[in-house]
Each structure stands twice: as structure tokens, then as C-alpha cells.
Write a structure and sequence with these properties.
six-stranded mixed beta sheet; Aldehyde Oxidoreductase, domain 4; seven-stranded mixed beta sheet; alpha+beta
């Protein structure tokens, strides 16, 4: 692995690292209350139909304090919208009627004095159903695909004619499996009522959105609800949106007049939350004999649910990579009798780029040209092919060139099955990564105290990606206060506004607010320092700066300075506190209002018809396939990425490396299996849901290129997201390397031994 690139500034150690490794960082399920009761969910065993009877008497006999079902549940206000249009994962709230819409749907919540009694009581509930026909087989239902909210059509030129005239044509179908997040930290909710005030401890990527959602559900004002989530033990979309079990736990707590804690079991997480939906892509790609891409068609199909026909469209990202004159691309969704999908680390880019970059590789092979040179030749250049807007920054060609050098691509032979090492067939593949730049509004509050400490407050959220450190570093840089004297508090809905920690937007959104609040704090401190007191009185504020715990003169030879503690003795209260808001230029007032009220409020990749904004990267992998056993291994991987100014190279490096590892997991391991006879997931555990371990991951090298983003009016920090970027291109690079190693073109993920063994 490469040394951490420090070209972008100081490489900061995690300020929250010690608390996490020592266990002092408290996660949601670790909070407790006096007289706490424990809850356990009961879920449906059928995929579609209704409950005809439910008997809770045995559960009550063994000690259940409350068994909440559709028969005795509170009637709640329906949610008006679901993702991607609104704040909830799904509009459907279980246990409001006897209707069953998917297997694993919550049908009862059992509350008892201990978790052991709650689990035992839950096992005794007897349910009878009337089952109706269900449909969960995605691939057999493409004929029902529909254009719905979020779907796109992109048309440019006469695709059919240009494709028919192309010298080389690829017409193929690619697919990706359903994947579940399976974070180490399970879903949980601890709910407590203090009069009409509701307190929620829950791992959340969006405490402001959850507060708004619960206020809608219970008919409360937002300030009557407090959502607390300082640390999240893994999310990447799974904890971005409010889920039905939160409201159910709050109902139970209000009903029994005691705090209630629910920790969702590992198997129930597969249906209580969401997942990355399966995808099927029909791609047609044509090129000229001299290696120019000419025509591209992409019919992208993905899963949705009958509750909410909406999903995550996939065709935009592929259209940004290369210059192709004729395009016909469509997004379509298939509603199934399953729980609703949810965002999962680069939700649409991972499956769609896998299909597209695999097809690009196939065209290069048919032309007999080097796949890397082919990509560089067709690079889209300085303007977005979809909108013809200039890119605010674009380093894709630079990433491919530098990545090829680091990886040793020049040593790659062109023909498949031509590279070997002992009993291993060796294949080298590459793929592009891309992710749109999102920027949203954010607020931060800075307090400078008389002992020289700084407190930074925001309701933004750190998923473990390093935001605590980035925020502390931004305040330290402006204020001149050592980072170990800065304490960051976030993940509490009572703090100043923060957007959802999703879409790789948090750093670019929050850092401008933190810097602005820090500048205000610094300026107020200096203003106090130059009042009529010795030794800085009357000096020009422009010649003063904060160094450690003092205000000092920057004029050469002028030794005048004064301690922060002495200055603050003259300030009422003994501290300075400033709050600043950041709103990206061009954000419509309606979107800003929607964001602050708990709805979405991020600017996407095209802003005010001025810039196209994306992060880019190039990934290279070496796959080894054993010629006797067909064992597949990614022995080494290289990723080079351009993401604007890097706030902290250390944590950015970690994020990019983690994304590549997850990409390897998607490429070779992860798949949620479903038995369509019963509409039920069958590998809902960590024993049968394959995930890589350390021994499965070889050498990984990450490098970040220097890049200046031009859209300063939208993104004044110059920072672009890295959290989701690196997972995007890995799957295609793996599939392309498998083809180079074996001569077998596998058009689905994950790729397993069964896919290549007969090719050996």
C-alpha cells in the first residue's frame, strides 16, 4: 500500500480515534434510561396477503408488558413522500392494518422487562394469514417496468442508424445482485417521552430529517423531538432515512409510560431496512474501425416496491465519461412484493458503470486495441456530453494515465489467457469511477472559552468517515488553536442545522460553515484585543493573528501579544460564540426551506446551467484465477482519484481504500439470495451472506491527484466527495480482468468459481 499522500496539507489523525478504540464513544444502543423496557419485532412469514388472526395471549402470559399489533396500534398520519422525493424510506407503515406487502414485514412489537423475555414472548405469538399471489422474481418481470419518479431518458443523435453502421457492435445484457449493507452496528431505537417531548437515540445519517419525519407522524412540533446520534457504526445509506420501527418503538414507549429500547436482529435487518436493488442493463455499444465510440444505448432496469414506485436511476453517470455522438438511454423500475430499496454507497453508479465499462472493454477487445488507450482516446474532455456545460474540474484522463503508470499497465499483454504465474492465470483490468458533486446548506456554531478551548457544534453527522477530524481541522486552521484543544459535537438535532450525511456531501457542505463561524470568532476576539487595554490596543486588526492560546502581532520585530484568557476576561460571560450558515449560491429558496424543514436540499451535478460537477477516478485490478480450482483472487489494486481539494489526506485515503475494498466485495462476494416461491430472503445472516476478510484483500494502492475546482461560487471549499467515488469502478475492472485472465466474459456480479471453472 502507498504512503498517505500529504500534498494537500497536513495529514490529521482522527480526533475521535482514541474514544472509539477504547470504547468510550457511545453508540445509540448503548444509551440507557431508568426503568428501561426492551422490545422485539415479530415479522411476517408471507410475501403478500393479510393477517386473518393474531393470538398474543401466550406472550402476555410469560411476561410481555405490551404486544403492539395492527389491532391495538395508534393511528398515525401517513407520510406524504418517500425517497428519492422525500424524507422516509417508504410511505407504507406496517401495523396500521392487517395488510402484508412483503415477507419480513413487522407485524408485532413485543415489549418486556428484559430482552430475554421479549424474545421468548415474541416466539409465542401465533399468526394466521390469507396469502395472495406475490411476485419477487425481478428478471421475469421486466415487461412490467415503468418510468416513474426519478427516471430519465437521454437521447442524442440517431442511435439506431449510427449503431447499424458501426464497424464494431456489442449487444449484451449485464446484471448485478441485490446487496444488503450489513453494517457492524445493527438498527436500533431507544425512545423516551418526557411529557410531550420525545427523545430518540438511534443510529442516523440525518437527525434533522428524522426529527421532521417523527413530527409529521405524531403531529408534534419539531422542537418537541430530540434525535441523538453522535456516532454511527456503519451506514452508507442504510441509516439515511427513517424506518417504520422508529415510530413503533416511540408508540410503545408512550403506551407503557416507560423508555423502550429495540435492537433489530441481524436477520430482520434485511427487511426492516433497505438494500441495493438488483439491476439489469441492456447495453448496445458501437464504434468505428479506428476506435471512436459512435453509438450507445442503455436500458437500465432496477427494482422498486409496490408501496413506492420510485428508485435510483442509473443512466446519467455513464453518459458523462466518454464522447459518444448517438445515445439512447432509459431508466425503468419494476415494482415487486419486497421491502423498499434504499441508497447504498453510490446507489445507481455501481451497477450502471459496471455494465457500461464492461461493454467499453468488450468493444476494445473486438477492435484489438488496448482498453486503457481506447478509454483515453474517447475521453469526453472539458464539457459534459449531456448538457454541454463545462466541467468545474475533470481529471479522468490524468487518473487513467497516472494509474496505468503505478499499476504497470504497459506490461499487460493484449490477448486473453496470455499471462500466467505458476498455476495462476493472471488478468489485468481497468474501469472508470465517477460520482456527482452534491453540496447542501449547513450551519455551525463556534464557542471560544477563556481556557483557550474551542467547541464546534453542528447537527451534521459523521458515519465514521472522518468528519469530526475534518471539522476540527478547519476550525484549527482558521483560529490557530491546536486541534487537541478543539471539541466537535454533532449528531444531535438540537444543534445548528446539518444536511443528510449522504451523497458524499458532508465535507463540502459543512467546512464552509465552520470556516465562516471560525472567522467571525477570530475577528471578534481580535476586536476585543485592540480595545483600550495593553498590550495590543490600537493595532491594525490585519496585523494580528491567533497562535495557540494568544493573539500575536504579525509585524516583524513586534513582540506584542496577549493571552486569549486575558482577553476573554473582559468579555461578558467569558467566552465568544458565533454561528454561521452556508448556503450554496443559486440554491432556490424553496429548496433551502425544504432542507431546513427536513427535506432534501442538495445541489446536484448541474448547477444554474453553469457547471457540470463530478469527481472522477480510474481503477486497475489484477485478478488471479487458479487453473485447477478456479479460485478467484484480486491480488492487487490501484486507484487514482481526482476530488478537488482534499480536506484531510489521511481520512480521504482511508475512504478511497475502503471503497475499493467494498468494490471487491461486490465484484466477488456479495449477493442476497431470494427464494421466489415464498418471496423470502434466505441468507439473512453473516454466515451465508459472503463478505471478504483480510485474507481476501491483496495489495491496495491509492493516490489522489491535485485538482482545483472552478465552481467556487457553489463550492467555496473546492472539495468534492470521496466517500462513494472509489466503490464505483471496481466491479467493472474485476470483470474485465477476469476476461483477460480466462477468456470468459462474465456479465454479472458477483463473479464466482462457477462462472469460470468450465473455461479453464
Amino acid at each position: 500500500m502507498s504512503e498517505i499522500d500529504s500534498a494537500f496539507g497536513p495529514s490529521l489523525q482522527r480526533v475521535d480515534g482514541r474514544s472509539k478504540v477504547t470504547g468510550s464513544a457511545r453508540y445509540a444502543a448503548e444509551y440507557t434510561f431508568a426503568n428501561l423496557a426492551h422490545a422485539r419485532l415479530v415479522t411476517s412469514s408471507i410475501a403478500r396477503g393479510c393477517i386473518t388472526s393474531i393470538d398474543t395471549s401466550l406472550a402476555e402470559e410469560v411476561g410481555a408488558v405490551l404486544v403492539l399489533t395492527h389491532q391495538n396500534n395508534d393511528v398515525l398520519v401517513p407520510t406524504e413522500s418517500a425517497y428519492p422525493a422525500g424524507q422516509a424510506q417508504t410511505t407504507f407503515l406496517p401495523m396500521q392494518s392487517n395488510e402484508i406487502r412483503y415477507s419480513g414485514q413487522p407485524i408485532a412489537l413485543v415489549v418486556a422487562d428484559s430482552i430475554e423475555i421479549a424474545e421468548y414472548a415474541a416466539s409465542l405469538i401465533q399468526v394466521e394469514y390469507a396469502s395472495t399471489g406475490h411476485e419477487t422474481d425481478f428478471s421475469s418481470q421486466l415487461k412490467r417496468a415503468q418510468k416513474a419518479d426519478g427516471a430519465q431518458d437521454i437521447t442524442r443523435g440517431d442511435f439506431e442508424q449510427v449503431f447499424a453502421d458501426a464497424a464494431v457492435r456489442i449487444d449484451a445484457v449485464y446484471s448485478t445482485a441485490t446487496e444488503h449493507h450489513n453494517a457492524m452496528e445493527r438498527f436500533s431505537t431507544t425512545a423516551a417521552w418526557e411529557g410531550s417531548q420525545l427523545i430518540i437515540h438511534e443510529p442516523s445519517q440525518w437527525v434533522i430529517g428524522m426529527r421532521a419525519h417523527l413530527a409529521d407522524r405524531f403531529g408534534l412540533e419539531p422542537d418537541q423531538i430530540r434525535v441523538i446520534s453522535p456516532f454511527v457504526g456503519g451506514g452508507f445509506g442504510s441509516k439515511a432515512l427513517p424506518m417504520p420501527h422508529t415510530a413503533l418503538t416511540a408508540i410503545a414507549a408512550r403506551r407503557i409510560g416507560r423508555p423502550v429500547k429495540l435492537v433489530v436482529s441481524r436477520d430482520q435487518m434485511f427487511t426492516v431496512g433497505g438494500y441495493r436493488p438488483a439491476s439489469i442493463s441492456h447495453v448496445r455499444l458501437g464504434a468505428s474501425s479506428d476506435g471512436q465510440l459512435l453509438a450507445y444505448s442503455h436500458d437500465y432496469f432496477t427494482q422498486s416496491s409496490r408501496s413506492d414506485l420510485a428508485g435510483m436511476p442509473g443512466i446519467a453517470a455513464p453518459n458523462v465519461l466518454y464522447r459518444i455522438p448517438a445515445v439512447h438511454a432509459r431508466d425503468r423500475f419494476v415494482d415487486l412484493d419486497l421491502n423498499h430499496p434504499t441508497p447504498m454507497r453510490a446507489p445507481q453508479e455501481v451497477p450502471s458503470i459496471f455494465a457500461f465499462e464492461s461493454a467499453v472493454d468488450e468493444v476494445a477487445h473486438e477492435l484489438g486495441v488496448d482498453p486503457l488507450a481506447f478509454r483515453l482516446r474517447n475521453d469526453a474532455g472539458a464539457r459534459d456530453p449531456i448538457t454541454d456545460l463545462p466541467f468545474s474540474s475533470r481529471s479522468l484522463a490524468q487518473c487513467f494515465t497516472r494509474g496505468g503508470e503505478l499499476f504497470g499497465w504497459a506490461k499487460r499483454s493484449l490477448a486473453p489467457r496470455s499471462m500466467r504465474e505458476g498455476d495462476w492465470l493472471v488478468g489485468l483490468g481497468c474501469g472508470a469511477s465517477i460520482y456527482p458533486v452534491f453540496v447542501g446548506p449547513a450551519s455551525a456554531r463556534i464557542r471560544l472559552t477563556s481556557d483557550g478551548r474551542v467547541f464546534v457544534h453542528t447537527a451534521g453527522q459523521d458515519l465514521g468517515t472522518g468528519l469530526y477530524t475534518v471539522v476540527a481541522g478547519a476550525a484549527s486552521q482558521v483560529l490557530g488553536v491546536p486541534i487537541d484543544r478543539i471539541r466537535v459535537e454533532m449528531g444531535n438535532s438540537d444543534l445548528p442545522f446539518g444536511s443528510m450525511a449522504a451523497g458524499s456531501r458532508s465535507t463540502a457542505s459543512l467546512v464552509p460553515a465552520v470556516r465562516a463561524a471560525s472567522i467571525r470568532t477570530r475577528d471578534r476576539l481580535i476586536a476585543e484585543a485592540i480595545k483600550d487595554q495593553h498590550p495590543l490596543a490600537g493595532r491594525d486588526p490585519a496585523t494580528l493573528s491567533i497562535v495557540s492560546n494568544a493573539v500575536v502581532s504579525t509585524v516583524p520585530g513586534d513582540m506584542a501579544s496577549e493571552l486569549v484568557s486575558e482577553i476573554l476576561k473582559r468579555v461578558p460571560g467569558g467566552f465568544i460564540e458565533e454561528t454561521a450558515d452556508f448556503t450554496p449560491e443559486g440554491l432556490p429558496l424553496a429548496m433551502l426551506s425544504n432542507a431546513y424543514s427536513g427535506g432534501e436540499g442538495a445541489l446536484g451535478p448541474v448547477v444554474e446551467k453553469k457547471w457540470a460537477m463530478y469527481s472522477f477516478g480510474a481503477q486497475f485490478v489484477e485478478v488471479r484465477v487458479h487453473k485447477l480450482t478456479a479460485q478467484l483472487r484480486v491480488s492487487r489494486a490501484v486507484g487514482v482519484f481526482g476530488a478537488g481539494r482534499i480536506a484531510n489526506p489521511r481520512t480521504a485515503h482511508s475512504q478511497l481504500m475502503g471503497g475499493m475494498i467494498w468494490g471487491i466485495s461486490s465484484g466477488l462476494f456479495e449477493a442476497t439470495k431470494i427464494d421466489n416461491r415464498y418471496g423470502r430472503y434466505v441468507n439473512t445472516n453473516l454466515a451465508e451472506y459472503p463478505l471478504p476478510v483480510c485474507a481476501d484483500i491483496g495489495s491496495i494502492e491509492v493516490e489522489m491527484v491535485e485538482e482545483e475546482d472552478l465552481a467556487k461560487e457553489i463550492n467555496p471549499s473546492g472539495m468534492k466527495g470521496v466517500g462513494e467515488l472509489a466503490v464505483v469502478g471496481t466491479g467493472a475492472a474485476i470483470a474485465n480482468a477476469v476476461f483477460h485472465a480466462t477468456g470468459r466474459r462474465v456479465r454479472h456480479l458477483p463473479i464466482t468459481i462457477e462462472d469460470v471453472i468450465d473455461a479453464l
